[in-house]
C-alpha cells in the first residue's frame, strides 16, 4: 500500500481553498490594473483588456481546480452529499465537495468582478 | 534520554527528533468497552480536580481558565455595550425634537463617535471572542484554550483599553470625528481625543489578534481525536473562518493607526495633501478593515444560529457542506468590497463598478447559509424553544438589512443615500439582525451550559418582543428619514425639513429597545440561587458542549473523548457514560499539570499531550505595562511609555520562560486507551509553532498594507517621489539587505547545528545573528538619515522612514528572540532535542528576512525606478 | 439659543419638507434613481415576505417535513440561482447608469469649494476666462447638464442636492467632479454630507433651478459689482463694514473690501438663505448672526460683533440687505 499514497490534496484544507485564493489574486491584480490604468495612465482600454485577460486566466485555473475537486468528491455513484462519518473516504469527499462548491462561488465572484468592463467604457 | 554527544549514531533525523505516538489508535471497541477500577477512577478525579481548581479569594483574578476569562470578557463586553447604548439614548434625546440644545454640538459629536467606536471595538468583536473562549473548548471536548495566559492577557488589555477609551467621555475629551476618524479632520484635531482613539484602540486590536490566533490554533490543533475536519461542529468552522478574517482584516487598520500616530506625534505627512500625502490612503486602509469587520461580527452569530437550529429541529443540520462553503466564501469575498464605503469619493467608474459587482457577489454565499437554515427547519420538526424565537427574529431583521444592502451595492443609488439615515437604518438592521439578536438567543441557549441554571422563559419572551418591536419602531422610519434627506452625524435639524415626527418616533423606539435589553440584562444577572439546577442537556442538543457535568466541575471535560460523529450525544448512547467515567483520553493529571491533547489539523490524529498554563499574575502585569506603553503617549510621555513597553517585554519574557517549552521529565505519557503520546512537540505539530506562524501572517499583512501605501501614493499622486528628492543610500541599503540574509542564515544554521548537539557552535551562530541584525537595522537607519531625507517634509521620505521604523522594531523583536534562545541554551531550557524556542524563532526570521528584503527593494530600487 | 429657535421656525424660502428629498426628484439623475428605488423596494418587500413567510410557516404551522432533495433544491435555487439572476440584472442596469450620471457637463461649469462651514461657489460660463464669485447658494439652469468641480479647504466635505442627483465628496488636495441636469425649476436644498467638524449639521445651501433665460439674466446681475447703498442707514452700514474690518475676510465687488477668506457678499441679499442654509435671509436674522455667529455655528471662524451698538449692527444689516 506504500506506493499508493493518496495525493496531498485529499487531506489538505489548503487545497480546498485554492479556488477562492485564485479569486483573491484575480481581485488584487484587477484592482491594481484598473487603478494604474485609470488614475495614472487615463487609459480605460488598458484597464478593460487587462481585466479581461486576468479573468480568462483565473476562470481557467478555477475551472481546472473545480474539475479536480469534482473528481475528488466522487459524486457518482450514489447520492454523495453526506460526509458525516470520520472515515478517510468521507473526509476526502468532503474536502472535494467543499472545494467544488468553492470553485463555483469563486467563479461567480470572478465573473461578477469582471462584469463592469462590458458595461463601463471610460475612466470617468 | 541518551547523551548523543558520546554516541556513535549518525545525527538523529527529524523523524526521530520528534517523538511519535506509540500504541493503539484508533481505539478498538474492546478498549472502549473495558471497565475500570472505581478506586483508581476516584484517584484520577482527585488529581484532575486539584490541577484544574479555580483560585480562591483575591487570587481569583489570576485565573486563566477559559471559563473564568470567558465570563469576565463577556460581562465586560456587555457592560461596554450598555454604556454605548446609553450614549445612543442621549443621541436620540437630542434628536427627538428639532433644534434641540440638550447636547452641545461638540458633545454630540463625541457621543456618536464613541457610540460607534465602543459598539464595534469594545462590544462586537470582543463579545465574539469571549463567547468563543467560553464555548470553543467545550465544543471540541477540550478542557481549555491552547494558550490560556494569552487569553487572559488579551482580556486584561481589552479591559484597560476599553475603560480608557470609553472613560474619555466622562472627561469631555473623547474623540469626536466619527468612528472612522477620517483625516484631515481627525489628524488636525486639537486635543487628545484622536490619540485616545488611536492608541486605546490599537492595543485592543492587538488583543483581538491574540484571540484570533488562539481560536485558529484551538480549532486546528486541539480537536478531540477522531474529530476529522468533516465532522467538526459548524461553530468551529465559523471560528476558524472568522479567526483567519481577523488575522487579515485588523492589520491594515493597525498599519493605518501606525501611520496616523506617526503623523500626529512626529508630523509625518501621510494624510496631508499639502505635503504629498493623501487622506484617501486612510480611507482605503480603514475600510479594508472595516468591511470584513462587519462580517467578522456577523458570522459568529450565524454560527450560534447554526448550533441552535439543529437542536430546535432535533435533527442534524441540512447542508453542512453548503454552510462551510458559504462561511469560507463569505470570508474570502468580504475582502473585496471595501470601496463600497467610498462610492462617493470620485474614484473612476470602472473601479466603482468593480466593487459594486463584488458587493453583489457576496450576497450569494450569505443567502446560501440562510436557505440552509430554512431547509433544516423544513426537513425537521421544529420545536419553538425560546432561543429559536430570537433566531427567527434575527433572520427577519437581517434579511431586511441584507435587502437594503443589495440596494446600496448599486453605486448610483448609494450616491443618493450614502451618509444619510438610510445607511444608519441599513447598518443597524444588519448588525442587530446579524449580531445582537442571535447573541441574545445564544445567551439564552448556552446559559445552562455556562451556569447550570436556566434563564426565565417568560422574561425572555417579554425581552424579545420588547426589543424586536422597539427596534423596528426606532430604525424602520430611518429609511424614510434618510430618503427625505437627513444626513448622518448632524447634531440637530431644522423643524422645516419635515423630519420631526420621524425622529421623535425613532427616539421613542430607542427607549423601547433599551427597555428590552434591560429586561434581558436583569434576567441575566438576577440571583438564581433558589432555582434548581438545570438538567444536564436541557435542550437535548447533540454536540459535545452539553456533556459537561452538572453541577459544574472546573475541569470542563472529564476526559477528552474519541469522537466519531457530528452529534455524538445523539448517535452514541454509551458516549456520555464513557466520558463521565474518564474512559477516554487524559482522564488524570499525574504530575498535577493542566494538559490538552494536540491532534493533527485535518484528521485529528493524536500527536501530543501538552501541558498548558495555569493561574498567573504575570499576564496582568504584562497587560498593565502594555497599557502604559500605549496610553502614556497620549499624554506625550514618550520616554515613560518606552520604559513601560520594556516592562511589558520583560513580563512576556518571564511568562514564556517559566511556562512554555519546558524540558519535560519524561518524553511521553500514557494517555489512556492504550496510547502513549509525547509531551513536547516542535514544528508544525506544535500549537506554539502555529501561533507564531499565524501571528506572523497577520504581521506580514500589516507590513503589506504599508507597502500598499507606497504604491497608492505612486498611483494617486503625481509628485511621488517628488522631483529631485533624496533617496536612501543604495550601498547602505544593499548592506542592510545582506545583513538580514546573513542573520537569517545564521539562525537557520544555529537550529540545525543545535540539533546535532553542537551547542557552542549554535550559540556562536546565534550571537552572530544578533550582530548581523543590529548591523542590518543600523545600516538601514543610516541609509535613510545620511542623504538627508526629512520625513516631515513630504509623504515620500515619511513612508520610507515608516518602513524603516517597522523593520527596526521587528529587528528588535528578532534580537530579543535570539537572545532568549541563547539564554535558554545556556540555562538548559533549549536542548538539541527540545528546541521549540529556536524552531519558532527561525519561523519568525523567515518573515523578518522577507520584510527586510522587500523594504530594501522599496527603499533602494523602487524610488529610483519611479523617478 | 432661543434667538436661533425663533429664526428657524420662520419658514425658509426653501419651503417645507420635500426640498431635500430623494423621493421628489427635480433632475434627470434623481428621477432615474427614485424610480429605481421604488422598483427595488417592491422587489425587496416581496422577497422579504417570501423568505420570512416561509420561516413563519415552517416554525408555526409544522407542516409535512420537506424531503432532502427538496431541501437541496431550495438551497441551490433560492440561495444561488435566483439571487445570481436578479443581481446580475440589477448590476447591469446600475452599472450602465453610472457613466450617464457622470457624463461631462456641456456649457456651464461651477467650481465649489467646501470650507468649515460654508461654500465658495464660482460660476464659469462656457468660454469664460474668469469666474463669477458667489457663496452658499448654487443656481443652475434647466435643460442642460452643468459640470461641477469640487474641492475642499482643510477637511473633507460632501456636496449633495438630493432633488437633483447623487453626492460627491470634496477632498482637500484633489479635485473631484460631478454633473447635474436639473429639469424642474424651483428652490431646493443641499447639505454637507461628510462629517466636517463641530458645525457639520449647520452647513447647507440653497439650490435654485431656473429656466435658461432666467438663469442668464440672474448670472449677468451676479457678475456685476455690488449695488451702491441708497439710504442713509445703508451708507452708514457700509462705513461700519469697512471700518470694522469686515473687508479683511469678505469681498464686496465695487468696494475696497476684496478679501476672500470668508464668503463673497456682493449679492448677499439675493440669496434665499443666510449663513449656509441655516437662517432665513432677513434683517433680524442678519442682526443676530453678526452679533454672535458662534451661537448658530459653534466653531465658526467668524468673530462676533456684539461689542457694536444695536444701531450700528442695524445699519450693517440694512446695508447688507441692500446688496441684491
N-to-C order of helices and strands of chain A: HHHHH
Structural class of chain C: alpha+beta
**Unreliable stretches of chain A, pLDDT < 50, 5 or more residues?**
none
Overall 3D shape of chain C: elongated
Helix % of chain A is: over 70%
Instruction: Please indicate the percent range of residues of chain A in DSSP E strands (runs of 2 or more).
Output: under 5%
Assembly context of the chains: heterotrimer
Q: Class of the largest domain in chain C, according to the CATH hierarchy?
A: Mainly Beta
Number of domains of chain C: 3
Structural class of chain A: mainly alpha
**Beta strand count of chain A:** 0
Alpha-carbon distance between the two ends of chain A? 63 Å
* Topology of chain C as a string of helices (H) and strands (E): HHHEEEEEEEEEEHHEEHHH
For the secondary structure, the number of strands of chain C is 12
Walkthrough of the structure:
The complex is a heterotrimer of chains A (124), B (867) and C (324). Chain A is mostly helical. Chain A has a domain of 72 residues. The N and C termini of chain A lie far apart (63 Å). Chain B has a domain of 182 residues: Up-down Bundle (Four Helix Bundle (Hemerythrin (Met), subunit A)). In chain B, a hairpin with a 6-residue loop joins strand 2 and strand 3. Helix content of chain B is 65%, strand content 3%. Chain C has 3 domains: 74 residues; 115 residues, Immunoglobulin-like (Sandwich), CATH 2.60.40.420; 90 residues, Immunoglobulin-like, CATH 2.60.40. In chain C, 38% of the residues lie in helices and 17% in strands. The longest helix of chain C is centred in the first third of the chain and has 34 residues. Chains in contact: A-B, A-C, B-C. At the B-C interface, helix 5, helix 12, helix 13, helix 14 and helix 15 of B face helix 1, helix 2, helix 3 and strand 8 of C.
Give the key terms.
heterotrimer; A: 124 residues; mainly alpha; elongated; B: 867 residues; Four Helix Bundle (Hemerythrin (Met), subunit A); three-stranded antiparallel sheet; two-stranded antiparallel sheet; disordered N terminus
A few lines on this structure:
The complex is a heterotrimer of chains A (124), B (867) and C (324). Chain A contains five helices and no strands.
Amino acid at each position: 500500500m506504500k506506493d499508493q499514497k493518496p495525493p496531498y490534496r485529499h487531506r489538505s484544507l489548503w487545497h480546498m481553498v485554492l479556488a477562492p485564493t485564485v479569486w483573491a489574486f484575480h481581485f488584487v491584480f484587477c484592482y491594481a490594473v484598473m487603478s494604474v490604468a485609470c488614475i495614472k495612465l487615463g487609459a480605460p482600454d488598458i484597464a478593460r483588456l487587462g481585466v479581461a485577460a486576468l479573468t480568462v486566466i483565473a476562470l481557467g485555473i478555477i475551472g481546472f481546480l473545480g474539475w479536480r475537486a469534482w473528481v475528488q468528491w466522487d459524486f457518482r455513484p450514489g447520492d454523495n452529499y453526506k460526509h458525516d462519518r470520520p472515515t478517510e473516504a468521507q473526509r476526502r469527499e468532503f474536502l472535494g465537495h467543499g472545494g467544488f462548491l468553492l470553485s463555483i462561488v469563486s467563479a461567480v465572484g470572478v465573473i461578477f468582478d469582471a462584469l463592469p468592463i462590458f458595461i463601463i467604457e471610460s475612466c470617468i | 534520554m541518551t547523551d548523543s554527544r558520546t554516541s556513535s549514531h549518525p545525527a538523529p533525523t527529524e523523524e526521530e527528533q520528534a517523538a511519535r505516538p506509540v500504541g493503539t489508535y484508533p481505539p478498538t471497541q474492546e478498549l472502549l468497552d473495558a471497565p475500570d477500577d472505581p478506586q483508581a477512577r476516584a484517584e484520577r478525579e482527585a488529581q484532575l480536580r486539584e490541577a484544574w481548581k479555580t483560585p480562591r479569594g483575591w487570587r481569583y483574578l489570576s485565573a486563566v481558565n477559559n471559563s473564568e476569562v470567558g465570563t469576565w470578557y463577556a460581562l465586560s463586553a456587555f457592560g461596554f455595550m450598555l454604556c454605548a447604548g446609553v450614549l445612543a439614548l442621549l443621541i436620540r434625546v437630542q434628536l427627538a425634537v428639532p433644534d434641540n440644545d440638550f447636547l452641545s454640538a461638540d458633545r454630540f459629536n463625541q457621543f456618536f463617535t464613541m457610540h460607534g467606536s465602543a459598539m464595534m471595538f469594545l462590544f462586537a468583536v470582543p463579545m465574539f471572542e469571549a463567547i468563543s473562549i467560553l464555548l470553543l473548548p467545550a465544543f471540541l471536548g477540550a478542557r481549555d484554550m491552547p494558550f490560556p495566559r494569552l487569553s487572559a492577557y488579551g482580556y486584561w488589555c481589552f479591559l484597560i483599553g476599553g475603560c480608557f477609551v470609553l472613560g474619555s467621555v466622562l472627561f469631555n475629551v473623547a474623540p469626536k470625528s466619527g468612528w472612522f476618524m477620517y483625516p484631515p479632520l481627525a489628524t488636525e484635531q486639537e486635543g487628545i481625543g484622536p490619540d485616545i482613539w488611536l492608541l486605546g484602540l490599537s492595543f485592543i486590536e492587538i488583543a483581538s489578534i491574540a484571540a484570533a490566533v488562539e481560536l485558529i490554533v484551538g480549532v486546528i490543533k486541539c480537536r478531540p481525536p477522531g474529530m476529522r475536519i468533516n465532522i467538526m461542529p459548524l461553530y468551529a468552522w465559523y471560528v476558524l473562518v472568522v479567526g483567519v478574517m481577523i488575522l487579515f482584516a485588523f492589520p491594515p487598520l493597525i498599519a493605518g493607526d501606525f501611520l496616523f500616530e506617526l503623523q500626529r506625534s512626529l508630523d509625518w505627512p501621510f494624510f496631508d495633501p499639502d505635503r504629498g500625502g493623501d487622506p484617501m490612503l486612510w480611507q482605503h486602509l480603514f475600510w479594508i478593515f472595516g468591511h470584513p469587520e462587519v462580517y467578522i461580527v456577523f458570522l459568529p452569530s450565524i454560527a450560534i444560529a447554526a448550533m441552535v437550529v439543529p437542536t430546535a429541529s432535533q435533527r442534524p443540520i441540512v447542508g453542512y457542506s453548503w454552510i462551510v462553503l458559504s462561511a469560507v466564501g463569505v470570508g474570502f469575498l468580504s475582502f473585496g468590497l471595501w470601496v463600497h464605503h467610498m462610492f462617493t469619493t470620485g474614484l473612476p467608474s470602472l473601479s466603482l463598478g468593480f466593487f459594486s459587482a463584488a458587493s453583489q457577489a457576496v450576497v450569494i454565499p450569505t443567502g446560501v447559509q440562510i436557505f440552509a437554515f430554512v431547509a433544516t427547519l423544513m426537513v425537521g420538526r421544529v420545536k419553538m424553544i425560546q432561543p429559536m424565537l430570537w433566531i427567527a427574529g434575527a433572520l427577519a431583521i437581517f434579511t431586511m438589512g441584507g435587502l437594503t444592502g443589495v440596494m446600496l451595492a448599486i453605486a448610483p443609488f448609494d450616491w443618493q443615500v450614502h451618509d444619510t439615515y438610510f445607511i444608519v437604518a441599513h447598518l443597524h438592521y444588519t448588525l442587530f439582525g446579524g449580531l445582537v439578536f442571535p447573541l441574545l438567543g445564544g445567551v439564552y441557549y448556552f446559559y445552562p451550559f455556562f451556569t447550570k441554571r436556566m434563564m426565565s422563559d417568560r422574561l425572555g419572551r417579554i425581552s424579545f418582543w420588547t426589543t424586536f418591536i422597539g427596534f423596528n419602531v426606532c430604525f424602520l422610519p430611518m429609511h424614510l428619514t434618510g430618503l427625505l434627506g437627513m444626513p448622518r452625524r448632524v447634531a440637530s435639524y431644522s423643524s422645516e425639513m419635515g423630519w420631526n415626527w420621524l425622529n421623535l418616533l425613532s427616539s421613542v423606539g430607542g427607549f423601547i429597545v433599551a427597555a428590552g435589553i434591560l429586561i434581558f440584562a436583569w434576567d441575566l444577572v438576577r440571583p438564581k440561587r433558589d432555582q434548581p439546577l438545570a438538567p444536564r442537556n436541557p435542550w437535548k442538543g447533540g454536540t459535545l458542549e452539553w456533556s459537561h457535568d452538572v453541577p459544574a466541575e472546573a475541569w470542563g471535560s472529564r476526559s477528552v473523548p474519541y469522537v466519531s460523529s457530528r452529534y455524538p450525544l445523539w448517535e452514541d448512547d454509551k458516549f456520555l457514560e464513557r466520558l463521565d467515567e474518564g474512559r477516554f483520553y487524559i482522564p488524570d493529571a499525574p504530575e498535577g499539570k493542566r494538559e490538552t491533547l494536540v491532534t493533527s489539523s485535518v484528521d485529528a490524529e493524536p500527536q501530543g499531550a501538552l501541558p498548558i498554563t495555569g493561574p498567573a499574575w504575570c499576564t496582568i502585569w504584562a497587560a498593565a505595562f502594555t497599557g502604559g506603553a500605549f496610553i502614556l503617549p497620549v499624554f506625550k510621555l514618550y520616554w515613560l511609555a518606552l520604559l513601560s513597553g520594556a516592562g511589558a517585554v520583560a513580563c512576556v519574557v518571564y511568562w514564556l520562560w517559566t511556562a512554555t517549552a519546558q524540558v519535560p521529565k519524561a518524553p511521553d505519557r500514557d494517555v489512556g486507551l492504550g496510547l502513549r503520546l509525547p509531551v513536547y512537540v516542535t514544528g508544525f505539530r506544535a500549537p506554539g509553532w502555529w501561533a507564531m506562524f499565524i501571528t506572523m501572517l497577520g504581521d506580514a499583512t500589516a507590513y503589506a498594507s504599508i507597502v500598499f501605501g507606497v504604491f497608492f501614493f505612486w498611483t494617486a499622486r503625481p509628485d511621488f517621489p517628488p522631483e529631485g528628492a533624496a533617496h536612501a543610500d543604495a550601498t547602505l541599503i544593499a548592506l542592510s539587505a545582506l545583513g538580514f540574509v546573513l542573520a537569517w542564515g545564521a539562525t537557520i544554521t544555529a537550529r540545525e547545528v543545535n540539533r546535532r548537539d553542537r551547542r557552542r557552535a549554535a550559540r556562536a551562530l546565534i550571537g552572530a545573528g544578533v550582530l548581523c541584525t543590529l548591523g542590518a537595522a543600523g545600516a538601514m537607519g543610516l541609509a535613510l538619515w545620511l542623504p538627508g531625507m526629512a520625513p516631515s517634509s513630504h509623504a515620500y521620505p515619511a513612508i520610507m522612514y515608516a518602513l524603516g521604523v517597522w523593520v527596526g522594531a521587528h529587528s528588535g523583536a528578532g534580537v530579543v528572540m535570539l537572545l532568549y534562545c541563547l539564554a535558554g541554551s545556556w540555562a538548559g531550557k533549549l536542548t538539541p532535542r527540545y528546541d521549540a524556542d529556536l524552531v519558532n524563532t527561525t519561523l519568525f526570521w523567515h518573515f523578518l528576512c522577507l520584510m527586510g528584503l522587500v523594504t530594501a527593494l522599496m527603499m533602494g530600487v523602487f524610488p529610483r525606478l519611479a523617478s | 439659543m432661543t434667538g436661533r429657535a425663533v429664526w428657524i421656525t420662520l419658514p425658509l424660502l426653501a419651503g417645507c419638507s420635500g426640498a431635500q428629498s430623494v423621493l421628489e426628484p427635480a433632475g434627470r439623475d434623481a428621477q432615474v434613481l427614485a424610480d429605481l428605488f421604488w422598483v427595488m423596494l417592491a422587489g425587496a418587500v416581496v422577497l422579504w415576505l417570501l423568505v420570512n413567510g416561509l420561516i413563519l410557516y415552517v416554525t408555526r404551522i409544522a407542516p409535512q417535513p420537506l424531503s432532502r432533495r427538496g431541501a437541496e433544491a431550495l438551497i441551490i435555487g433560492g440561495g444561488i440561482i435566483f439571487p445570481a439572476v436578479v443581481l446580475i440584472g440589477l448590476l447591469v442596469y446600475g452599472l450602465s447608469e453610472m457613466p450617464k450620471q457622470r457624463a461631462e457637463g456641456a456649457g456651464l461649469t461651477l467650481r465649489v469649494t467646501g470650507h468649515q462651514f460654508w461654500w465658495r461657489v464660482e460660476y464659469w460660463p462656457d468660454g469664460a476666462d474668469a469666474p463669477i464669485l458667489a457663496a452658499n447658494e448654487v443656481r443652475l439652469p434647466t435643460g442642460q447638464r452643468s459640470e461641477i468641480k469640487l474641492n475642499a479647504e482643510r477637511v473633507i466635505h460632501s456636496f449633495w442636492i438630493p432633488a437633483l442627483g447623487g453626492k460627491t465628496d470634496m477632498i482637500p488636495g484633489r479635485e473631484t467632479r460631478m454633473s447635474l441636469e436639473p429639469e424642474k425649476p424651483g428652490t431646493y436644498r443641499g447639505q454637507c454630507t461628510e462629517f466636517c467638524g463641530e458645525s457639520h449639521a449647520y452647513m447647507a445651501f440653497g439650490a435654485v433651478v431656473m429656466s435658461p433665460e432666467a438663469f442668464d439674466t440672474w448670472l449677468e446681475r451676479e457678475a456685476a459689482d455690488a449695488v451702491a447703498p441708497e439710504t442713509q442707514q445703508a451708507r452708514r452700514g457700509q462705513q461700519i463694514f469697512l471700518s470694522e474690518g469686515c473687508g479683511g475676510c469678505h469681498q464686496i465687488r465695487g468696494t475696497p473690501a476684496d478679501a476672500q477668506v470668508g464668503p463673497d457678499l456682493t449679492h448677499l441679499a439675493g440669496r434665499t438663505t443666510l449663513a449656509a442654509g441655516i437662517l432665513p435671509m432677513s434683517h433680524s436674522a442678519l442682526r443676530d448672526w453678526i452679533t454672535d455667529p458662534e451661537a448658530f455655528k459653534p466653531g465658526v471662524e467668524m468673530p462676533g460683533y456684539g461689542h457694536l451698538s444695536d444701531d450700528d449692527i442695524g445699519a450693517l444689516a440694512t446695508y447688507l440687505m441692500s446688496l441684491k
